[in-house]
Amino acid sequence: MEYWSSVFAMILDWKVLVFLPIGVIVGAIIGAIPGLTITMSISVLLPFTLFLDPLPGLVLIFGISKGGLFGGSISAILLNVPGTPAAACTMLDGYPLSRKGRAGEALDTALWASFLGDLISVLALILLAGALAQLGLKFGPVELFALIVFSLTVIAAISTSGLLRGIVGGLLGLIAGTVGLDLVYGSERFTFGSANLYDGIAFMPLLVGLFALPDILLYYFGPRQARKGVGRTAGGASGRLSMANFRMILPTILKGGFIGVILGAIPGIGATASTFVSYAEARRSAPDREEFGKGALSGVAAAESANSGTGASTLIPLLALGIPGDIVGAMLLGAFYFHGLAPGPLLFQNNLDFIHALYITLLISSAIVLIVGRYGTQYIKRIVEVPRDVLFPIVLVLTVVGAFAISNSLFDVWVMLVAGMVGIGFRALRIPEAAFLIGFVLSPLLENNLQRVLIIGKGEMSAFFDSWIALVLYAATVAAVVGRIILPALQEHKLKRQAG
Amino acid sequence: MLLRLLPGAVTLLVGLVLALLVVPLGVDDPGFSQPHTLAPHDFPDRLSWLVVFCGILLLLVGWMQPGTEAVSPGPIRLRRAIPFAAGFAAFVLLIPVIGIELSAFCFIMGLFLFASDIGWGRALIVAGVFALVIHLLFIRLAGVPIPSIVRLIS
Amino acid sequence: MTHVFTKNWTRRGLLAAAATLALTLGLPDTARAEWPAGGLRVIVPYGPGGTSDNITRAVTPKIEEILGRNITIENIGGGGGVIGVTQLAKSKPDGLTFAMVPTATLVIAPQMRKLNYDPLTDIQPVAKIAESYGALAMRKDFPADNLSELIAYAKEHPGDITFGSAGIGSITHLYVEIFANAAGIEVNHVPFKGSSEAMNNVLGGHVDGQFDAVVLRQAQAGAVKPIAILNDERWEGLPDVPTLNDLDFKGFENVSSWFGFIAPEGTPDEAVQAFSDATRQALEDPEVKRHLKELGVIPKYLPSDQFAELIRSNYDQYKTILEPLGLTH
Predict the structure, then answer these.
(1) CB proximity list for A309: less than 8 A, separation 6 or greater
(2) pLDDT on residue C9
(3) Total domains, chain C
(4) Residue of chain A whose alpha carbon sits nearest to that of C173
(5) What is the pLDDT of residues A251-305, one digit of tens each?
(6) Which residues does chain B have within 8 Å of residue C325's beta carbon, measured at their own beta carbons?
(7) CATH number, position C116
(8) For residue C9, is it within any domain?
(9) Predicted pLDDT at B22
(10) Does the distance separating the beta carbons of B32 and C326 come in below 8 Å?
(11) For a Cys-Cys bond, which of A116, A123, A134, A139 suits A143, CB 3.0-4.6 Å?
(12) C326 contacts on B by Cβ (under 8 Å)
């Protein structure tokens, strides 16, 4: 009894109760503004939080990152500009929905998927942290390699204009992903002497350039058009998600949430890659799978639920092992140390009340995301009704500022513009940008883990099969290739023969 | 017919440029080799040749498959594209010189007059307010290290 | 012939004239240049939240107080710290710009790649602030419990032991190579992207061991097997784990992962001295000390000249490690 009263004393601090909603609101706004990223805003606020008590300080950061995960989907859906890297997958169906005048439904879907994904994630953190942390540790180079090989089969799922074009896009993405310093030799690859490329092509400018810029550039390159908003067709943005549709996407959301939880607990995979795995799974099983890439609610649901599903589960390796799973985790680790709290098994022994207080605030914050999203999006979705001739200049400037801020130089602005031209080329040749994106995200994971398996196994091929997790993943890969690529191709062939 | 071959031809060309030019020139040779590892150029090299292979396949598909496919990103008018591109480049290049606020203001004003009929007055107001918002949000609040007119003057 | 003479004479004459002019006008030479008033800028060449950033934020408030000047921290990340240091090297040496950098950006990265700065000529060292702890730990079920058993095992199984590092050319990678050289053993180095990823692989048993600061807290929790501390003194969290000195293992004398303030070459002496002194005073503050300790680093001040010497000696020493590996450019 005394124990729980001390836990609640921590939570009922006015700072916690005020910072939590503020954090979520600020995060959602920042996430929704193209150019401002969550990592950037957390880094601005981090020094400030160090002077607060541990719980209010951390709560502020959690609030921002949760609000941001949802906020990022807003601009992805409405503008085809992902507010956060992890919202990249949300764009694939969210923006087409928006253009069809179904922005309201897409936002509702994103909100519910975010909320439920987040809730699953928090519950997993509370109930299964230890077990999931141990599972995460089982993923060494071999297992990660197998997982990435499996994830690459997603390319088949998103290739709406033919498998071959999807593979070309994926290959080009894999090549673009090798830019930077080589893992084993430290040699420069395709940097042409520029230190700006040592860490590879910056993700956000590439993403914005490839997806958002082509629309905007082509708008200005083309003949003058009549005024209209991005999604200004029948119904506008006022639509809401119907109960029937909610029931249809619910299984996808739950599955996406669990995928996010598990992949989030494995350090080094990240939210972005997790969304694609979930998207691939939904593409296989969702009722509206034929609509994927053209505006499927399940696509948005799969991406957003996995995205938010990683939200709390990335904390699992941090809290249970003291190992940050991503950039925000690394920043949080610094904050924990600063307050004299060392995440890891000892934290559960010495500061259990703090952990429990943290859990409860995380649960509360899930509810706050739902409330803020429910009432906030009513206003924000009107953006699609702003005429393009007013909206596009503003979006252009925001994306330029965001790209500039990455390394305080024009370099990444040029990267973004080049990516924009490449994006136009992709559209002309109908090569799916999404396939390129997947290749790009997975490329370093694939090559680096391949290298590590080779080094550790001293070049023996048997090293690749030295793990049951890897074997299961290879089997899944074979099943996916046969089931999704070879069988449909044979079927099509047969149909054609019958017709001919 | 020619349009159907275009995707394959472009892919083939890109693949060949990658495999024969970009990979050999763009990857620094470490000058030594470590046992049991891929050299830095191995991975991109194999991928580039796969692109070449896919290009050939796309050509074959384009040749054999009946029906035409439109290959166009949409209408492009050079008369409009060139001034826009020049304006955009000027905007980006002016950021370090006159700061983000002023260059953003000029760029947005320019675009409004170039491709909108919202009129001088409203354009002026929207561009001005937006420049101010950029300043407050990015420079003041977020502390983004982007050239600002305030810092350039002082 | 005459032509050359004339040209030479002219040039000399011009130089002399310029010198006279400079003297008569009283132009100061760079070493005695004034330190202009105004706020200071400290570049952190990494994103916020990393060790470099945390150290900077722990000491700068005190330095602000001592110098009576404002300090703005600018995080300019990317390129493994290289972009931020390049920006510093390019900055005007007016005494208003400083940077906080770790070991690798000055003594390792410039040897591995052609960069736009030379750490020995373009950088003015200001003060060393801190050293991070370092330790060697092996996975929990590794068949050796101490240093001599480890070395014996390595000699029996040459090239079999795998050590994870934070990446090629990181200080944690050099630890592996220096150790292997000094012990006369052959080991297998596995590069990861960052200390955390490497740690994860030691915990999961995918690699055998790691030289890093992050292993300390894991060893304290009993998740890995600590073998030795690389610093001169033991870590208070694990008082029973010996240092390499205690074990009489030679080769790590000057090797450490340090952090320090630097300025562009040509910065006025007055500014360098004042900033260095302020750093020393800040490090004596108990609150700052406590913060640094919580960040897992040991406050260790060195003044400008001794810091410069450390950089030079590390640079030369690491050259002898990197060259045989083929890692120098």
Answers:
(1) A117, A118, A120, A121, A256, A257, A258, A259, A260, A261, A264, A274, A278
(2) 39
(3) 2
(4) A184
(5) 999 999 999 999 888 877 778 888 888 888 888 788 888 888 888 999 999 999 9
(6) 32
(7) 3.40.190.150
(8) no
(9) 94
(10) yes
(11) A139
(12) 30-32
